[in-house]
Each structure stands twice: as C-alpha cells, then as structure tokens.
Design brief:
Blueprint lengths: L1 H10 L2 H7 L5 E4 L2 E3 L1 H4 L6 E4 L4 E3 L13 H9 L1 H10 L2 E3 H7 L4 E2 L2
Length: about 110
C-alpha cells in the first residue's frame, strides 16, 4: 500500500544517493531553479550559481509539499525558518540572497 510505496521512494531517493557522495559533488546552477531544481542540488557538497539564477519553491501554491527532499536539504543549508518562508510564501530569491543565506556557496559565471 501507501506505506510500502513511501518506504521504497525513501530508499531510492536521488537526494539520499547524492548526500552519500556530497563531498565529491559540485552543482553549478543557472536560470530558474524551481522546486526540485534546488531541492536535489542542495544535497551537494558545493553549490554555485550564475549571477542571474533565482530560486523558488512553488509547490504549496499547487496543493503540494516539496517532494524532492527540499524540506531536508534546504533546511540543512539555510535553517528551518528560512526554508519555511520559502515553502509558505512561494517567493523567489535571487543568487545574492541565496549566497547570503547559505543556500549556495558561490556566485560564478
């Protein structure tokens, strides 16, 4: 049933796999990083972004919760309060804010 499906998804989640090798992974992001576009990379050991990159978690506005591990990966980087704000507001943040908050580690072209 549903519990078994959840268990299988949890065990085979890409974020879990990425977290296991995070120290060897650098994700460079550009453009719109929406939903899983930031949830999965946030598990990486190093995350950089182009100056024009923006980040958004719009799932709640669609009646969903971030399902790609963002409640874990993003919270580890920026804390629960800022993660809650991103989820609840659906607002976009730019690369500078993401850097200031610790969501990304560098702004690079």
């Amino acid at each position: 049933g549903g519990a078994e499906a959840h268990r299988v998804r949890s065990l085979r989640h890409p974020g879990r796999e990425l977290a296991a090798v995070a120290d060897r992974v650098h994700c460079h992001l550009h453009s719109a990083c929406i939903g899983s576009g930031i949830e999965i990379p946030a598990f990486a050991g190093r995350v950089s972004a182009a100056p024009t990159t923006f980040f958004q978690l719009p799932e709640l506005g669609m009646g969903l919760i971030p399902g790609a591990g963002g409640c874990v990966s993003i919270a580890r980087r920026i804390g629960r309060q800022r993660t809650a704000w991103l989820v609840l507001s659906g607002s976009r943040i730019n690369a500078r804010t993401a850097l200031d908050w610790g969501l990304i580690d560098a702004i690079e072209n």
